[in-house]
């Protein structure tokens, strides 16, 4: 049985005329972005991160290529296979001519995208910077991953997306601040005291054994994917607001490096 | 006061022009075009589509690099030029503190070989798919070269390597790392060959950048890397400074996923950003290595952007007339060519140019010697991604 | 009533391009479909070129050739008819 996820009504925030060609990643990513942007004029840069990009379109194009023996393949699936399609689409929809970059580094994707967004927010301090991360999944690709000898098969691979507006000038309506974001070795991670935080949210499915019981195992609820730590950050902010925490941390990465992200009340 | 200007202290390159800097330089100087028959990649379009292919099989590249033959072709090519780059910079892989890598193909060339068996339900080597995702390439390379860092991959289509250089430059400027390896690689694949063919932007003959008769681009493959460090750091270790990265700018055209705006808005803004970063006026630019893919859309759009930014467009060229369009690697190849132009005071021609698009605006058409101070290099990718870099001659301050 | 070529084309086009937000009968067969009207773009043009080749045996060597033909659904239908007669 395939794991299920319920999509929101994307047409609430995306013009239906644009939706027809959008891959699941684009629908999720644009929807997430439109939820956080109030004024497109205020967005100076758009930074995105995706581990696998529009993998559904990549799969379609590769299989059609073989089925049709390189004849009559159509361009739509190819175009969305360049990983910066989400950032490019947001650039068009927001009529934004600013800095526009896409990072793709497996489980460290969100770490590098966040790092770049923080850097841009320091370079243009009086503006807001849009950070969007996401990954899609299909039944066929999930089946392939299950048979790959790469280790992360304990948890189902599931789609996810997240979006944030960052600014280094404190805004009145900002609730949360990024304190730190590091890639640690596992032995560096083991030295940390997670009890310093109101909560720890884990999006690294290689770390479960090492964590105390009060950690929220986000990946067990949401499934895993390369950019799950982005979704875990968004989830963390929601829960932190509801439970009135002062600080929390998010764990991403894999068995070699842990993305240790700390967040505190603004 | 420490000299924080950004120095280039190592370069490495593979392309259809050659497997190292010397071979590429020789081909550029002697007008030897790398575009021709498809010999290594096996495609039903093999007879009809000229490509700028590197004439080594993956087996041979594997022997050259010590990697497995099933390694993605882009990674094999990258390994060759990273080796050259480190050797020229007199550095070990363990000296590298940050690594920015641009690719669009990643491991797709290996994944696509498994698809026929996969579709028939026959035996598939699922291990191969572990190299599919773009990030895996940098992971393999940073391990192979024992780098002191985790690689970070940018994927912005045809501006990827240029953005890797931009990111490296910003990193040096912010003082976050002393020695950074930047660049990109893309090997030919059925995926990209058929993808671009489906967009109907491939020329069935040798491409004609900036020519009124142009019909589209020729795909190429290659890899190119540079070492970036501050001038202070470079001088401190006695490194030879080849050139400077003095300006950079990235913008979004915000027009269409695959076509540039007719006015080249994003391109113009990127060039202006790069000039501003370099503290230069447009009149200071000696030479432009254009994106110049030879598509009907790009060359018209880019010329319009150049006309908007420059009162008098300086001598410009498209070296894609030699190397074909190497996609993610293009910005890296053209950065290395810009360094060579600055070092030797040479501008390389746009091969086969005959008919200006308008107003008698013509690119450089023969090897030209000139004392060059500042070179602008453009790379534009799908998704409206526009990046401009400024490379400058190094003069001790 | 038998479906006309233009109506058949319209239905195939809407399916191929995944246009679900408009009912087939609401599409003006004489109206512009690129830019305004259905708001199709250059990527859709390439999809239609492939569709015409696969479904009706019509070949275009480049997108510019197809531009005039793609003025409206009726103009595409007329082109297919005339091509069939000349075949």
What's the level 1 CATH class of the largest domain in chain A? Alpha Beta
First-last Cα distance of chain C: 28 Å
CATH topology group of chain C: Non-ribosomal Peptide Synthetase Peptidyl Carrier Protein, Chain A
Stretches of chain A where pLDDT is under 50 for at least 5 consecutive residues are none
Q: For the CA atoms, what is the radius of gyration of chain C?
A: 12 Å
Chains forming the largest contact: A-B, 56 and 58 residues
Helical stretch count of chain A?
10
| N-to-C SSE string of chain C, H for helix and E for strand | HHHH
Low-pLDDT regions of chain C: none
Kindly describe this structure.
- The complex is a heterotrimer of chains A (266), B (397) and C (87).
- With 266 residues, chain A is of the alpha/beta class.
- Chain A is 35% helix and 22% strand.
- Chain A has 2 domains: 13-166, Peroxisomal Thiolase, Chain A, domain 1 (3-Layer(aba) Sandwich); 176-265, no CATH class.
- Chain A has 10 helices and 9 strands.
- In chain A, helix 2 crosses helix 5.
- Chain A is globular.
- The termini of chain A are far apart.
- In chain A, 50% of the residues are buried.
- The model of chain A has no long low-confidence stretch (mean pLDDT 92).
- Chain B has helices spanning 21-29, 58-65, 73-89, 108-120, 134-144, 160-173, 190-198, 231-236, 265-277, 296-309, 320-323, 330-344, and strands at residues 6-14, 98-102, 151-154, 180-186, 222-230, 243-252, 287-289, 316-317, 346-347, 368-369, 374-381, 385-392.
- Chain B has 12 helices and 12 strands.
- The mean pLDDT of chain B is 97.
- Chain B folds into 2 domains: 6-236, Thiolase/Chalcone synthase (Peroxisomal Thiolase, Chain A, domain 1); 247-392, Thiolase/Chalcone synthase (Peroxisomal Thiolase, Chain A, domain 1), CATH 3.40.47.10.
- In chain B, helix 2 packs parallel to helix 3, helix 3 (73-89) crosses helix 5 (134-144) and helix 6 (160-173) crosses helix 12 (330-344).
- In chain B, the strands form 2 sheets. A 10-stranded mixed beta sheet of chain B has the order 3-2-4-5-1-6-12-11-7-8, sandwiched between helices. A two-stranded antiparallel ribbon of chain B has the order 9-10.
- With 397 residues, chain B is an alpha/beta fold.
- Chain C has 87 residues and is mostly helical.
- Chain C has a single domain (5-19, 28-86), classed as Non-ribosomal Peptide Synthetase Peptidyl Carrier Protein, Chain A, CATH 1.10.1200.
- Chain C has helices at residues 5-16, 42-56, 63-69, 73-86.
- The longest helix of chain C has 15 residues, at 42-56.
- Chains in contact: A-B, A-C, B-C.
- At the A-B interface, helix 3, helix 4, helix 5, strand 2 and helix 6 of A face helix 4, helix 5, strand 3, helix 6 and helix 7 of B.
């Amino acid at each position: 049985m395939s794991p299920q996820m319920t999509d929101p009504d994307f047409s609430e925030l995306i013009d239906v005329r644009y939706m027809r060609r959008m891959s699941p990643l684009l629908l999720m990513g644009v929807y997430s972005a439109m939820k956080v942007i109030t004024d497109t004029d205020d967005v100076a840069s758009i930074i995105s991160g995706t581990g696998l990009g529009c993998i559904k379109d990549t799969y379609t194009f590769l299989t059609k290529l073989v089925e049709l023996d390189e004849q009559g393949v159509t361009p739509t699936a190819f175009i969305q296979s360049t990983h910066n399609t989400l950032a490019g689409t947001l650039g068009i929809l927001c009529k934004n001519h600013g800095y526009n970059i896409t990072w793709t580094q497996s489980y460290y994707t969100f770490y590098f995208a966040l790092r770049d967004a923080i850097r841009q927010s320091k370079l243009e301090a009086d503006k807001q910077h849009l950070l969007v991360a996401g990954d899609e999944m299909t039944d066929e690709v999930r089946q392939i991953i299950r048979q790959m000898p790469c280790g992360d098969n304990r948890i189902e691979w599931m789609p996810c997306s997240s979006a944030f507006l960052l600014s280094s000038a404190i805004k009145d309506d900002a609730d949360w601040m990024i304190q730190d974001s590091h890639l640690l070795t596992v032995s560096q991670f083991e030295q940390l005291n997670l009890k310093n935080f109101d909560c720890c949210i884990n999006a690294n499915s290689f770390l479960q054994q090492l964590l105390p019981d009060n950690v929220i195992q986000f990946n067990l609820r949401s499934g895993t994917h390369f950019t799950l730590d982005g979704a875990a950050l968004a989830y963390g902010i929601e829960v932190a607001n509801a439970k009135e925490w002062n600080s929390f941390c998010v764990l991403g990465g894999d068995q070699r490096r842990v993305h240790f992200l700390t967040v505190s009340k603004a | 006061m420490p000299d924080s200007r950004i120095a280039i202290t190592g370069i490495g390159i593979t392309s259809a022009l050659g497997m190292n800097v010397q071979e590429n330089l020789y081909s550029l100087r002697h007008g030897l075009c790398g575009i021709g028959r498809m010999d290594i990649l096996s495609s039903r379009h093999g007879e009809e589509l000229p490509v700028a292919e590197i004439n080594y099989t993956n087996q041979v590249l594997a022997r050259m690099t010590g990697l497995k033959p099933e390694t993605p072709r882009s990674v094999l090519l990258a390994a060759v030029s990273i080796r050259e780059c480190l050797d020229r910079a007199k550095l070990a892989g363990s000296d590298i503190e940050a690594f920015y890598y641009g690719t669009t193909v990643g491991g797709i060339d290996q994944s696509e070989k498994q698809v026929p068996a996969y579709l028939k339900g026959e035996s598939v080597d699922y291990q191969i798919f572990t190299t599919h995702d773009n990030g895996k390439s940098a992971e393999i390379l940073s391990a192979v070269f024992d780098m002191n860092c985790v690689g970070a991959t940018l994927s912005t289509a045809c501006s990827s390597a240029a953005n890797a250089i931009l990111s490296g430059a910003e990193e040096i400027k912010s003082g976050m790392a002393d020695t950074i390896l930047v660049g990109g690689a893309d090997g030919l694949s059925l995926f990209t060959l058929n993808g671009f063919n489906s967009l109907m932007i491939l020329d069935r003959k040798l491409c004609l950048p900036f020519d009124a008769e142009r019909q589209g681009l020729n795909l190429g493959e290659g890899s190119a890397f540079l070492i970036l460090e501050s001038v202070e750091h470079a001088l401190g270790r006695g490194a030879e400074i080849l050139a400077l990265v003095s300006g950079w700018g990235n913008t979004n055209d915000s027009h269409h996923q695959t076509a540039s705006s007719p006015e080249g808005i994003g391109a113009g803004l990127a060039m202006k950003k790069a000039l501003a970063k370099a503290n230069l006026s447009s009149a200071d630019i000696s030479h432009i290595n254009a994106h110049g893919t030879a598509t009907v859309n790009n060359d018209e759009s880019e010329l319009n952007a150049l006309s908007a930014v420059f009162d008098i467009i300086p001598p410009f060229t498209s070296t894609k007339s030699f190397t074909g369009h190497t996609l993610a690697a293009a910005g890296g190849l053209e950065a290395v060519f810009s360094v060579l132009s600055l070092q030797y005071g040479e501008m390389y021609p746009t091969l086969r140019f005959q008919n200006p698009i308008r107003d008698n605006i013509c690119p450089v058409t023969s090897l030209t010697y000139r004392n060059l101070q500042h070179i602008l290099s453009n790379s534009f990718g799908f998704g409206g991604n526009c990046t401009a870099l400024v490379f400058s001659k190094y003069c001790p301050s | 009533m038998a479906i006309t070529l233009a109506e058949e084309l319209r239905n195939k086009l809407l399916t191929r391009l995944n246009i679900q937000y408009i009912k087939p009968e609401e599409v003006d067969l004489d109206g512009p479909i690129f830019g305004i009207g259905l708001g199709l773009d250059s990527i859709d043009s390439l999809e239609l070129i492939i569709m015409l080749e696969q479904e009706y045996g019509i070949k275009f060597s480049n997108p510019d050739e197809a531009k005039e033909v793609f003025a409206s659904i009726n103009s595409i239908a007329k082109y297919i008819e005339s091509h069939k007669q000349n075949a």
